[in-house]
Amino acid sequence: MRPRVKEYDHADRYPHELVEQMKEMGLFGATVSPEYGGLGLPASLYARIVMHISSVWMALTGIFNSHLILALAVEKFGTEAQKRQWLPRFASGEVRGGLALTEPDAGTDLQGIRMTARREGDTYVINGTKTWISNSIEGSCVALLVKTDPNAQPRHKGMSLFIAPKGPGFTVGRKLEKLGYKCIDSGEIVFNDYRVPADHLIGGEEGQGFRQVTGGLELGRINVAARGVGIAEGALKLASDYAQIRRTFGKPIAEHQAIQLKLGEMATRARAARLLTLDAAMSFDRGERCDMEAGMAKFFASEAALENSIESMRIHGAYGYSKEFDIERLYRDAPLTCIGEGTNEMQRIIISKQWLKRNPVG
Q1: So which residues are the catalytic ones?
Q2: What are phi and psi of 152, to 5 degrees?
Q3: What share of the chain is helix, strand, coil (3-state, %, to 5)?
């Protein structure tokens, strides 16, 4: 990636060549079980891969992360027939896609979605709009969250999740322009009387979609935390390298106390973010409930990415504001980690509720 990242990022061009390499390496099946053609990597190793890639170019990880949450939903909750039909194709990268949850009026509040699916014989007819969907343009399939019972109370009991390949009635709208996170396609999808076979309902039972989606978000939040770690560590390396080369007042700026204070804080933030993320990933690997741990990792690591990127930019001075230096890309990419897979405001609430639940008085 390193020699070509500026070329792709500045042109906001989809990296088809790198995607083919990722297919060959098996990244699209990284967490899929070997039984279905995947690598079967534990979350702790997968997180390290994401950290390493994100330290150079975070956006590239979005191409396989959203896809792997789609695969996880099928492997964890799908019928055996669904697993046999779809997982080998997901693992090879033959079929690539993502998770279609967000709507124009529903993001963090997933229960507020309006897209509906109506049963007609052996098919469901789906209508509505999704937005900010990764891999919606270049991919060929999504895990689609809909309302099969719009009147259900509580609302989550009326939600279902479908495997939705592209076809008639599935229209991709415009590519959304972004501050950072370039190259990966974030788009709108419009469904107009889109018909999907009933056997594409994940798990074969209506009303399970909310539970299926939130189960996958734990891995998604570990992934975003790992992205934050990568950015925090990448920004730290760029800053420390530059500080040892750049000289003022007759010595490298790394020898000035003001810069040393910044580097000390940056190194500590990056290290703490890494340890929190690996802790959450190992909890996930043990099969434990880890929404609190994943929330802590996602919250802290994303804030570390944001803080380290701006401190690194300050250490670079005017050069940090130049598109010729890599730090400006990390600075543009970092804010997404504070928003994606649930805002950090929501993470604080999740952490607090789980902490109190695990630590009752008495």
Answers
A1: 341
A2: -65, 145
A3: 60, 15, 25
